[in-house]
Amino acid sequence: MPLIELNNITKQFERKIALSSLSFHVKKGEMVALIGPSGAGKSTLLNTLAGITAPNTGTYLLDGVPIQHYKKRKELAKKIGVIRQQFDLIASLPVIQNVLAGRLGEWGFFKSMLSLFLPQDKQLAANALNRVGLLDKLYDQTSKLSGGEQQRVALARLLVQSPAVILADEPVASLDPARAEDVLAMLTKLVKEEGQTLVMSLHSVEYAKKYFSRIIALRDGEVFFDLPTSEITKEHLAELYLLKEMAL
Amino acid sequence: MMSKIKIPSKKRRFSFVAFSILLALALLAGSWGHIFYAERANFFTLFNEQNAEYAKKFFSGLFGLQEEKPAFTDKEAWINAGKLTYETLQMSVMAIGFATIAALLTVIPAARNIADGTLTVSKRWYRWILFGFFRVIYIFSRAIPELVWAMVIVFILKPGILPGAVALALHNFGILGKLCAEVIEDTDARPIRNLASSGASNAQILFYGIIPTVMPKFLTYILYRGEVIMRTSIVVGFVGAGGLGQQFKLSLSYFHYTEITLLLICYIILVFAADFISEGFRKAAK
Amino acid sequence: MKQLLSPLYLHKRLSLTLVLLAAFIWSLFSVTWSRDLLHAGGWATTVQILEGLIKPDLSPDILELAVESSWVTVVYAVTGMTVALIIAFVLGVLGSGVLVSSRPVRIVTAGFSRAVLAIIRAIHELVWALLFVAVIGLSPYAAIFALGIPYGGILGRIFADMLNDVPGEPIQALRAAGASRLHCLMYGYLPLIRSNMISYTMYRFECSIRSSAIMSFVGLGGLGYQIQLSLADLHYDEVWTFLFFLIAIVVLIDAWSNSLRKRLVL
After folding, report:
1. A140–chain B nearest CA distance, Å
2. ipTM of this complex > 0.85?
3. Which end of chain B has fewer surrounding CB within 10 Å, N or C?
4. Same domain, C129 and C199
5. Locate the ABC transporter domain: which residues (chain A) (predicted)?
């Protein structure tokens, strides 16, 4: 049974069609890259997958259950974790609190209040930070970290949250190439180790080919192609980006 | 699965922030301690029968339950209160006018970047003296509350609107001066220096460079202080400086409770109206 | 820059300035300007007051009294601010609506809280003091509540505005990690506005010192009370001593809040 099952999803904003009858499945453990020109609907798709945006029509089954049946936030947080471009962290809190925020869904009220003063489940946070190579920054204020380090803190939070599916919306767009590769390599490695499923939107086809086994290309809210990386040719890509420009 | 790793220990450093937290806690403990022990003020004895009786009398008085003809149903009283509100409004406007004039006359030398010459490129030895002098005056002016200024002023001026306006202006002059001096200090120096290096005189720099750049912010601050003055205008009346406050104090000492209700209504309307108008103006000034 | 200098824009600001100027001139007509405005001995009094400024009374007795009443003034400012912060926190959070998810409920609770904040801050602390003294008599709590309620209104409104201005992304990320609204408040909203909240509270603390000093006007101790007594005895030199203490407290708190603000920038 596929983990993510999208059937004929459409989403309309005002008069603009963001997604039109979109269907695809993602199996457990798959690594999927979403590419396509800007405005193709990548972000809307990811927001739909995360349950933030409700589609107008179509069905979305997450682990065999319709997404709207996940009433409790903490159930959803077990299934889906999100990482974005940046600004995702609370810059004025220490790194450890940002990492432990991944546990908030699990904790009761008193434990989470107490943790603000005496961090709980410290070992868990330390482990996660160790895996992203930031153990020494445990107590630093998050705002003092560089952009790449902040994204790694966001990764550590995902490790602590440990969802079945990770949705990443251009997580490296604001980083310089070297840092971007670091974060991507780390994210894909961790996902493989944890046996998770990853869906990531990217503007760089290079990265998509290098780190992902399957690429879904979107254009004008539709699936343009959905192929294993090995089958993608230059012509595919030329068509994906060129046609858009000609239409303009 | 989860391996034990050594968690690095937190580096503890005595920072200014930590010092501030300790100081704040000490102040809290000392102050509440003073209230509980030195003043022997028990919070719960407040809720005794006697106070309940007073409160009942006071509130039923405010709503005019014992009076046959409460002030707020009386036409004469409304006219009188309206007149006082009008006076208070005049007092506030006059106060903000005085404060603005005084602040504008002194603000230029009171800005640090004028004193050290970064804004005008010219340096004069006496500028630092002027800077220090006006800054000290500002501190004096704003550290002393309006009411204390009013208490002193009524020794010099006869009761009426003028002493109230002067007292309000004396306090707000320092606040406006400080705020406006900071605006000048925050202006981008480059265009003004260009003006100076192209041979403009000091007066030209002032009228073509500085004033147009800082005026919008000044206006915002003047309007903001105007709101505050409107709210404070009532208290200078307490010491005989005219307006709603003076009548309020009189009514309270003669136990004319319904008059108090009426005056409070007028006062709140005045404050809300001032807030509303000033917000509209501030949006227009942006 | 072009937009800045558009004629309409200049026109708007110019007319605003003219309106304000006209209002000021109108206000000047309320006073009949003559020598009669001054008390008979007005000039002489002014000279005496200024003499006191140059030669304040620095005798040990007065200094001791000044230190003591300075402490009392600080005590009421601190206790009043405690009450104010509690009011501001509760009504500010409710007024921002960040804890409520259903839209109609949020509009009602936030609107109601903001209305309460507007009313309690419109009334000056001294008016509150007079009302409280009328009800509970000359208790220290009259001063504490009289200070705390309007300051709570002022702070609460600003807190609510700050909470509403928090950027959406980090909060959304917390929600995605499974945080409830209360979690978002503790782990998101509050840490994000913390430094602004502290600077503004410090600024208001400085104001509360002045307000605390004038609480004496309704018969509660402190610097204002001593100033009033000395004025009644026409001892202007003593008045200035107490005023210098008041100025010193305000300057000290100002310096504290400035250096704290510099270290709090995120």
Report:
1. 9
2. no
3. N
4. yes
5. 4-245
